[in-house]
């Protein structure tokens, strides 16, 4: 029997009717002859509600207790999906992340998977059960009773599913959500966005990292490293969706595949920093130690022994970043630290665009024609990112989508495939 790992997100499990719909979908897959491991997220906005409840109690919740609170959302949905399958006559058992063998490091709120011991899952499949695994979580020890509960961060259920698919050598790994797959842009921002039937791991990784929220970055990384083909599909249709896989046509294509937008960004500038060795380390080590991701970094040309350093952090982390850096800025003798929350990122992504002429010029020219000022620029082998005013983001995304003709299908690539 083929082994299939499926993951269902919170929007797919938002209420009892949707849980029953998911159960019917799982039952149909089992009737078709598959063994199933189903990873579930918390229902709807449950995680957000739990976070808000914690904030009503304290502004600075203990990370360990926060993890113990947040995992209860996935406990609920896993048990309810198992119950829904029972009503259809399908044998099923729900497991916590720890019971499913997800072992992590001890970083509460952002734990990384260290190992997967699938022994319990294998036994349950052998007994004829559909295994429902609570996503987004794991344990630091060999047994749940002795270990510390940890969570994997936002989108962690994707990571759970891909890690299990890799360890179990599943025949398929399917990520079910409320959209039909990966689009050339966010359809809420660019109505003309087109569904991509296939996208390479590297391109998907950049899109996810730059703000596309359909897939979690670490899940794509795991898929790439372990050669797990991932299908992103809609819970509410039979459309085949998008396959994330090693793409043999990537060199032939050599063009922009999609664009990503991100509003969860803030620009931090340290003004008049003494220009001497070690200053960058002094600035960025405290952020790294606190787990705050720094993205775009720009250092101006030195004048009179000082320079300005600007960089971006997630807007949700800005307050914490300021608390960490303000004493450091004073100690190093810089003039001041400023922050701007009115910015956003827009990125074009495509394998090989850095090695082909014209893409940067077309991107910058398109934004200039729209009267949109570029504040910062960052590039990689497959991406060009511009920092702009947040008020201009939708206009910029639509203009770039038109400029790179992303609404057009790729008939030559489809034919080759």
Reconstruct the topology from this structure:
Layout: E1 3-8, H1 16-31, E2 35-40, H2 46-57, H3 63-87, E3 92-95, E4 102-104, E5 113-116, H4 119-126, E6 130-134, E7 137-139, E8 149-151, H5 156-168, E9 172-177, E10 198-199, H6 201-209, H7 217-226, E11 230-234, E12 242-244, H8 250-253, E13 258-262, E14 266-274, H9 279-289, E15 297-299, E16 306-313, H10 318-332, E17 336-340, E18 343-349, H11 359-369, E19 376-380, E20 383-389, H12 393-403, H13 411-416
Parallel strand pairs: 1-2, 1-9, 2-6, 3-6, 9-11, 10-12
Antiparallel strand pairs: 4-5, 7-8, 11-12, 13-18, 14-16, 14-17, 15-16, 18-20, 19-20
Helix pairs in contact: 1-3, 2-3, 5-7, 6-7, 9-10, 11-12
Number of domains: 2
User: What is the mean pLDDT?
Assistant: 90
Write down the CATH class of the largest domain. Alpha Beta
| Helix residue percentage | 25-40%
Structural class: alpha/beta
Strand residue content: 15-25%
The radius of gyration computed from the alpha-carbon positions, rounded to a whole number of angstroms, is: 23 Å
Distance between the termini: 28 Å
CATH superfamily of the largest domain: Acetylglutamate kinase-like
Main sheet characteristics: 8 strands, mixed
What's the count of strands?
A: 20
- Runs in which pLDDT lies below 50 for 5 or more consecutive residues are none
């Amino acid at each position: 029997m083929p082994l299939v790992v499926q993951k269902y997100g919170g929007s797919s499990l938002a209420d009892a009717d949707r849980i029953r719909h998911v159960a019917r979908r799982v039952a149909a897959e089992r009737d078709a002859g598959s063994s199933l491991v189903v990873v579930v997220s918390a229902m709807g906005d449950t995680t957000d509600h739990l976070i808000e409840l914690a904030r009503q109690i304290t502004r600075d919740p203990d990370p360990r207790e926060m993890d113990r609170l947040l995992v209860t959302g996935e406990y609920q949905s896993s048990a309810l999906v198992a119950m829904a399958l029972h009503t259809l006559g399908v044998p099923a058992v729900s497991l916590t992340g720890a019971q499913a063998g997800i072992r992590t490091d001890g970083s509460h709120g952002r734990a990384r998977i260290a190992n997967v011991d699938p022994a319990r899952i294998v036994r349950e499949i052998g007994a004829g059960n559909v295994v429902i695994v609570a996503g987004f979580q794991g344990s630091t020890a060999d047994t749940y009773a002795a270990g510390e509960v940890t969570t994997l961060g936002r989108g962690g259920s994707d990571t759970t599913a891909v890690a299990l698919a890799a360890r179990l050598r599943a025949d398929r790994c399917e990520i079910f959500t409320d959209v039909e797959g990966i689009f050339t842009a966010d359809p809420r921002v660019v109505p003309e966005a087109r569904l991509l039937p296939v996208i390479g791991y590297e391109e998907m990784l950049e899109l996810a990292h730059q703000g596309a929220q359909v897939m979690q970055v670490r899940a794509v990384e795991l898929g790439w490293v372990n050669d797990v083909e991932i299908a992103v599909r809609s819970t509410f249709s039979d459309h085949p969706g998008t396959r994330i896989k090693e793409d043999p046509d990537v060199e032939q294509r050599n063009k922009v595949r999609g664009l990503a937008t991100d509003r969860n960004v803030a620009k931090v500038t340290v003004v008049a920093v003494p220009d001497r060795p070690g200053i960058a380390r002094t600035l960025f080590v405290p952020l790294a130690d606190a787990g705050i991701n720094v993205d775009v970094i720009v250092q101006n040309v030195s004048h009179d022994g000082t320079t300005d350093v600007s960089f971006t952090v997630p807007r949700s982390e800005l307050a914490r970043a300021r608390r960490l850096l303000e004493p450091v800025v004073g100690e190093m003798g810089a003039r001041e630290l400023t922050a701007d929350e009115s910015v956003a990122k827009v990125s074009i992504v495509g394998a090989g665009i850095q090695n082909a002429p014209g893409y940067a010029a077309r991107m910058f020219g398109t934004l200039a024609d729209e009267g949109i000022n570029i504040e910062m620029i960052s590039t990689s082998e497959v991406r060009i990112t511009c920092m702009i005013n947040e008020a201009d983001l939708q206009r910029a995304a639509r203009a770039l989508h038109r400029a790179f003709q992303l609404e057009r299908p790729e008939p030559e690539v489809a034919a080759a495939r």
